[in-house]
Specification:
5 strands, 5 helices, alpha+beta, single chain
Length: about 160
């Protein structure tokens, strides 16, 4: 399935010189590969990262309440501090810089994707609470089945 955000689906190959950013066609190739071969939640994670510019630690601790679907707005107020890469030993901290606390708009397609993801997660949380005696109830948008947030290491 091709990414709904690009009309073409060129073959997958990145340019030889990598300066940290992808050209539009490279991003389309990458997101198409995510759509075809990605793990659960990869579609939502990588589309959000690509179209928001947020840092991975900010994505890991997004909560349902950080999204305003009526305004297509996302609020960033925290980031994940997890030096041991242990999901149970994390701290929510303010972003690196005070200017990094922000609100911004996200394109409709990505917000629709995330809204469907959150609705699905809300239903799954009810099931997971029954399975895990120590369920960690914090409404993270991207979480393990036990409710703890994914860590940056899981995004690699």
């Amino acid at each position: 399935m091709a990414s709904p955000f690009f009309s073409s689906s060129p073959s997958f190959s990145f340019c030889n010189t990598f300066d940290g950013y992808l050209e539009k066609h490279e991003l389309a190739e990458f997101l198409n590969a995510v759509n075809e071969h990605g793990l659960p939640d990869d579609i939502e994670i990588f589309h959000l990262l690509a179209f928001s510019g947020m840092r991975s630690g900010e994505l890991c601790v997004l909560k349902d309440t950080d999204f305003n679907f009526e305004l297509n707005e996302l609020r960033i107020t925290k980031t994940l501090y997890n030096p041991d890469n242990n999901m149970r030993k994390y701290t929510l901290t303010p972003p690196k810089f005070t200017g990094s606390i922000r609100k911004f708009n996200i394109i409709d397609n990505v917000m629709n994707l995330l809204q469907r993801h959150i609705v699905k997660q809300q239903a799954l949380r009810l099931e997971y609470k029954k399975l895990f005696d120590d369920y960690h109830e914090n409404n993270f948008v991207f979480a393990h089945k036990n409710g703890y947030p994914i860590i940056q290491l899981c995004l690699l």
